[in-house]
């Protein structure tokens, strides 16, 4: 901080970011946020200029998810602010702690349809956990502290702070030394585990169903020791992947629409479902009234509103997973069930012996997973490639698999990987993308170029909006509508123009060497993997069906 | 929503009198599938606590809405006033 200048609202912002340990932020300047960008010059916070505010918000999400810290992004008023919204909605849906700062027209101009004025405060209501608009410089410091506290407290989420230009310029009269702390308002009752204990000890066919809440609660050790000690057969949601040990013999993989056959069958058959930081999402349950139809439910969660929302819990256990999971950690007598499930697991193991010379995406991703260094962080976009990554790659921590779960937002992968790489400069970061999704935030290749961010991009190229094409083939009589992308740009040339090394492969025989070359390359790399446009993701629980009614081929 | 099975409730919400808290409550109520049949709101200027009475109807259980409103940052408490909540007669 330059001491010769009096402290302004803009300067105070960076002081407070520094107090919260923020080292990196993602943003894009403009008229109504210029005083903040001016104060940035004197601050120790490192700013990454993204090439679209949506990129900035997803980089903040990726940063937060990979590091466990709050991700911070900022944008100007009007179009800058609205461009952040998709990233904020994604963060809300996946409970990711992000603080977004937006510039606003001066307070005197607010409400006059001023140039680049938009009611971002109003727009934020449905896409943030909470939001603030600061109209008095005396409130700015407290509001910013609160924003961080709210983003991290309880079920995490995005918080937006809208700061009018005159507040950014205003002189700060007084600063407080104490960081305001926030008490969790919703008092959770002490967990009553009597009912849960009774259910658990009497169950013949119990299943552990783990969701994204485990990673968010930092309760990986607790859930693994619970799984190990109880010997429970276990399944994971998309966002829960990495929480359970993938090598545990009782672990059955992902459940739901594109889950493993064994996971879905075992859940369908179980008599007790122990949901841990999971919320019975429709992509998980399929037809809700036929989901685990014979099961009682023990539901661990931090969010009261998730209990009984989609499925009545026979024994709800509200509160911190780290404290509550150990309360039920005990050995169980369920050998028969374990044996039955393990047998099923053996019978439905993945197969990679795919005929012909064309590349089989699941085999590529399996091989990448086997070859990638320890603690590699993988991000994905959305579509078939995302489901193949979830099915065929193994992760040892949820912070190593970043995917847009609840929102399913195409365009997530590349900027999220940039954020992840910046938060973890010494780890390998891989994006698994599709030829549709990559184009949604393709401008971020320029961010990679500018900051020399060494992310590895695996582009699974079927020249289609593959997942939509698959549904059109299966459920719309093959009437293909607007899913052809055969006129895509030359991706190798495109990457090369951003100084990113790139290569295209089309044959199985090229796969291993290409993966190794990519992983060994020091800088950014794009590997374009051409696959058959007709390849589908299997198994698939068709819409409105029970999870035991999986399709395994067309 | 099926008007025949729709239940009516009166919610009493105590909240800090903060920016847009009313908009937030209305947004959550609509989004979670409840119709708003009436509303009164008053602020106690002494302690800056607002009391909002919200008449809502839905065929969804009221606990779903209570839990969601309770999650809003500025809310102090949400309760159903049983004396005036009722099931619509057909
Ligand atoms: C922003 C956004 N728009 C539309 C969709 C709907 N959608 C889901 S998957 C998909 C196709 C994705 O194509 P691609 O990235 O090439 O991946 P593929 O399925 O071919 O692997 C689309 C359009 C979405 N998820 N997100």
Task: Explain the layout of strands and helices.
The complex is a heterodimer of chains A (554) and B (90).
Chain A: H1 9-19, E1 24-28, H2 34-40, E2 46-49, H3 53-67, E3 71-75, H4 79-93, E4 98-104, H5 120-123, E5 130-133, H6 140-152, E6 158-164, H7 165-169, H8 194-202, E7 206-210, H9 213-216, H10 220-230, E8 234-236, E9 251-254, H11 261-269, E10 272-276, H12 282-285, E11 296-301, E12 315-318, H13 321-324, H14 335-347, H15 361-371, E13 377-380, H16 384-392, E14 401-402, H17 413-423, E15 429-434, H18 445-451, E16 456-461, H19 466-475, H20 491-496, E17 501-505, H21 511-520, E18 525-530
Parallel strand pairs in A: 1-2, 1-3, 3-4, 4-6, 5-6, 7-8, 7-10, 8-9, 10-11, 11-12, 13-14, 13-15, 15-16, 16-18, 17-18
Chain B: E1 7-16, H1 21-31, E2 35-44, E3 49-58, H2 62-71, E4 75-80, E5 86-87
Antiparallel strand pairs in B: 1-3, 1-4, 1-5, 2-3
The site of thiamine diphosphate (TPP) has 20 residues of chain A, from helix 16 and helix 19.
């Amino acid at each position: 901080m330059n001491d010769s200048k009096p402290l302004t609202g803009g300067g105070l912002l960076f002081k407070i970011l520094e107090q919260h340990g923020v080292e990196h932020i993602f943003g894009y300047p403009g008229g109504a946020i210029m005083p903040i960008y001016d104060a940035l010059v004197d601050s120790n916070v490192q700013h990454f200029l993204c090439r679209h505010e949506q990129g900035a918000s997803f980089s903040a999400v990726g940063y937060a998810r990979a590091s466990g810290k709050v991700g911070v992004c900022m944008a100007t008023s009007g179009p800058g602010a609205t461009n952040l919204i998709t990233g904020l909605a994604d963060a809300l849906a996946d409970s990711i702690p992000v603080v977004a700062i937006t510039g606003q027209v001066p307070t005197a101009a607010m409400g006059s349809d001023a140039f680049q004025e938009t009611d971002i405060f109003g727009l934020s209501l449905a896409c943030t956990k909470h939001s603030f608009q600061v109209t008095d410089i005396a409130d700015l410091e407290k509001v910013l502290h609160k924003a961080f506290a709210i983003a991290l407290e309880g079920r995490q989420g995005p918080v937006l702070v809208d700061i009018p230009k005159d507040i950014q310029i205003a002189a700060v009269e007084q600063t407080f030394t104490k960081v305001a702390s926030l008490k969790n308002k919703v008092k959770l009752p002490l967990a009553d585990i009597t009912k849960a204990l009774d259910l658990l000890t009497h169950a013949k066919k119990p299943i552990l169903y783990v969701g994204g809440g485990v990673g968010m609660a930092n309760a990986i050790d607790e859930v693994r020791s619970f799984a190990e000690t109880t010997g429970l057969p276990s399944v994971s949601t998309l966002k829960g992947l990495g929480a359970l040990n993938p090598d545990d013999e009782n672990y059955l993989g992902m459940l739901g629409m594109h889950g493993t056959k064994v996971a879905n069958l075992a859940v369908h058959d179980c008599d007790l479902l122990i949901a841990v930081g999971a919320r019975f999402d429709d992509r998980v349950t399929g037809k809700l009234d036929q989901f685990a139809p014979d099961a009682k439910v023990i539901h661990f969660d931090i969010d009261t509103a998730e209990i009984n929302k989609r499925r009545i819990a026979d024994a709800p256990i509200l509160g911190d997973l780290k404290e509550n999971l150990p309360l039920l950690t005990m050995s169980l007598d369920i050998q028969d069930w374990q044996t039955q499930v393990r047998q099923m697991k053996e019978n439905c193991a993945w197969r990679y012996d795919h005929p012909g010379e064309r590349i089989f995406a699941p085999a590529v991703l399996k091989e990448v997973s086997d070859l990638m260094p320890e603690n590699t962080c993988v991000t994905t976009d959305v579509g078939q490639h995302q489901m193949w990554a979830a099915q065929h790659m193994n992760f040892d921590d949820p912070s190593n698999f970043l995917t847009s779960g609840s929102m399913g937002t195409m365009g997530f992968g590349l900027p999220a990987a940039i954020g992840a790489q910046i938060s973890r400069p010494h780890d390998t970061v891989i994006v698994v993308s599709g030829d549709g999704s990559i184009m949604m935030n393709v401008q971020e290749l320029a961010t990679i170029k500018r900051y020399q961010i060494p992310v590895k991009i695996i582009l699974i190229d079927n020249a289609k909006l593959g997942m939509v094409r698959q549904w059109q083939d299966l459920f719309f009589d093959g009437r293909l509508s607007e899913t052809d992308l055969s006129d895509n740009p030359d991706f190798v040339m495109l990457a090369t123009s951003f100084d990113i090394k790139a290569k295209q492969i089309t044959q199985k025989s090229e796969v291993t060497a290409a993966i190794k070359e990519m992983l060994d390359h020091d800088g950014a790399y794009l590997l374009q993997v051409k696959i058959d446009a007709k390849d589908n993701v299997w198994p698939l629980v068709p819409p409105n069906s029970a999870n035991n009614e999986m399709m395994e081929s067309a | 929503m099926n008007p025949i099975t729709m239940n009516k409730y009166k919610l009493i919400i105590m909240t800090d009198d903060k920016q847009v808290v009313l908009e937030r409550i209305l947004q959550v109520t609509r989004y979670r599938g409840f119709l708003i049949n009436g509303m009164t709101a008053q602020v106690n200027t002494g302690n800056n606590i607002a009391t909002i009475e919200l008449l809502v109807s839905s065929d969804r259980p009221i606990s779903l809405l209570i839990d969601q409103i309770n999650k809003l940052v500025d809310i102090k408490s949400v309760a159903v006033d049983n004396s005036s909540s009722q099931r619509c007669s057909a």
